[in-house]
Amino acid sequence: MIREQATSFRSSRTARILHGALALFAAATLLASETVHAGPPYMTDDPEPVEYLHWEVYLATQHFIYRDGASGAAPLIDMNYGALPGLQLHVQGQLTYARPSGGSTFFGVGDTEVGAKVRFVSEGAWWPMVSTYPLLDFPTGDSSRQLGTGRAHAFLPLWLQKSAGPWTSFGGGGLWINPGVGNRDFWYVGWEIQRHMADLALGAEVFYTTPDLIGGDANLRFNIGFLYDLTEHHHLLFSAGRSIVGATLFQSYAAYQLTL
After folding, report:
1. Bridge-partner residues for 26, per DSSP?
2. What are the residue boundaries of the structural domains of the chain, listed by start?
C-alpha cells in the first residue's frame, strides 16, 4: 500500500514523522487474549511486503465476543518496515482486556508478536504473488488474568495473491505451533476478495481453523470490511463478522493507518 520513493525521507518534515514512527516502533516492542494475525483489517494475510525503506503504522482496536465472555485489544500498535526489497519486518504490541461472563474485567499488557514477510515469487500475468510470513508470539501478557497465553507460539504460513482489474484476491494458510497443557497444534486456512473503487476497497473473507484444544471444536468464520484512503498517507480500516461454526459469536477490527 506504500508507493512513495525512498528519497522522500530526505525532507525535514518527513524526517520528523519518521522519528515519531521510530518512537512508536520502540514503544510497540515494549507492549504486547487474543492477538490479531492478519492483513489488516482481515484475519487472512496478503503476500505483499511493505516497499523497501517504507513504513506502515496501525493504531487499532479489536474485539471478540464469545458465549462465555469477551476479549480484545485497545489499543493495538502494529508496525511494518520494508527492510529489503521483498522483505518486511513486523512487530505488534497491545494493551488487552479479558471479561469472563459474570466475572471481573482485566486490562493490561498482552502478548507481543514479531515476524518477517518474505516474497519469493512476484505476481505475473499467469501466476500469483507468493510469500511466507512466519510469526512468533512472545508471552509478555499475564496469563493468570487471561491477558496472554503464557507460552511462545509460532505460525508458519504460505500466502498467495492475484489481481485482475479492480479485483484483488489473496489467501492461503499455515500451521500454528500451539504448546501448552490441553493445547494442540492447529491449521489456519482463509481467503479474501476485494474490489477497489477510487479511494475505497470493499472486501469479504472466510477462514477456518482446526481445533486448538484437545477435544475442542473447529471454527469457521467470515468478515466483511473496507479500506478507505483519506489521503496518500492516511487511511481508515474496518471489518466485522461472526462465526458460522464454532465459539466466536462476533469479532470486529477498526484502525487508523499511517503510511510513509
Report:
1. none
2. 6-259
Q: What does the DSSP assignment read for 30-63?
A: H-------SBTTBSS--S-PPPTT-EEEEEEEEE
- The reported pTM is 0.82
Dihedral of CA 171/59/225/200: which sign? negative
For the stretch 192-238, pLDDT in tens is 999 999 999 999 999 999 999 999 999 999 999 999 999 999 999 99
Spatial distance between the Cα atoms of 15 and 181, rounded to a whole number of angstroms: 48
Over residues 44-99, the pLDDT tens digits come to 999 999 999 999 999 999 999 998 899 999 999 999 999 999 999 999 999 999 99
CATH architecture group of domain 6-259: Beta Barrel (2.40)
Structure letter (DSSP) for residue 246: S
The H or E element spanning position 17 is helix 12-30
Q: Are the C-beta atoms of residues 256 and 234 closer than 8 Å to each other? A: yes
